[in-house]
Design a protein that fits this description.
238 residues; alpha+beta; OB fold (Dihydrolipoamide Acetyltransferase, E2P); Trna Endonuclease, Chain: A, domain 1; 2 domains; 6-stranded antiparallel sheet; 3 helices; globular
Length: 238
């Protein structure tokens, strides 16, 4: 995924009210921008970090600048825009990543799961080899890394647990269900559940895997020009 235009670089002054951030641009201007990430942004929102902003041409937006990237204290580039995750995964799926989900010729977005109060991010169907259709849920991973290990979630996620329970019921009923972690970092070697932050999510993830839900993680190459999911990252549940 290429950014629509050149990004503006600056230094983070503060992130506040979840959706806002003040940034001192390299140009000398200080601006308030939209923060498109509702999580805690652990390790990605410390004052003084280098950040990159995009500009929207939508005249109806109160804040035309949006926060896209941050360089962590360790020097890793991270895409913090959670709204990019679905498009990044769709791009990867169309390119055959992960390989286990390749071969489908149709992909629908925001599909209701039968009998459940949930819309899956994608429904893959019409597989070239006759594999059953597959419901796919996407989760964005940005949380701080230690020794290459990324954690999800970075805050308690009741919604994430509910989604895992729905995917588990699908799998137990004989359907195909998959969870894909979109890792918008270039320093990750594995993804683990953040048991210390949300132990319930960790339990539901392990139960989902035991029920037959397929769990994948795709790692990104990140730059101020583009973000692209290019590699599979193991998901480890010790």
């Amino acid at each position: 995924m290429d950014f629509d235009g050149p990004l503006l670089r600056g230094r983070l002054i503060r992130r506040y009210k979840r959706f806002l951030a003040d940034v001192a641009l390299d140009s000398g201007d200080t601006v308030t921008c939209h923060c498109p990430n509702t999580g805690s942004m652990m390790g990605c929102a410390d004052p003084g970090l280098t950040v990159w902003l995009s500009r929207s041409d939508n005249g109806k937006r109160k804040y035309p600048l949006g926060w896209e990237l941050v360089e962590t204290a360790e020097g890793a580039l991270v895409g913090i825009h959670t709204g990019r995750a679905n498009a990044l995964v769709a791009e990867a799926l169309e390119s055959g990543h992960p390989e286990q989900l390749s071969g489908y010729t149709k992909m629908r977005r925001e599909v209701s799961v039968p009998g459940e109060h949930m819309r899956a991010d994608y429904l893959l169907s019409a597989h070239e080899g006759g594999a059953p259709e597959c419901f796919v849920e996407v989760k964005n991973v940005t949380a701080a890394v230690s020794g290459g290990v990324a954690l999800f979630p970075d805050a308690v996620s009741d919604r994430g647990s509910r989604h895992l329970q729905v995917l588990s019921r699908l799998a137990r009923a004989g359907g195909r269900a998959a969870l894909v972690y979109c890792v918008q970092r270039d320093d990750v070697t594995e993804v683990r559940p953040a048991d210390a932050i949300d132990p319930a999510y960790g339990r539901h993830l392990r139960a989902a895997m035991a029920a037959g839900v397929e769990v994948y993680a795709l790692g990104a190459v990140v730059s101020p020009r583009r973000i692209q999911l290019v590699r599979c990252v193991p998901v480890v549940c010790p």
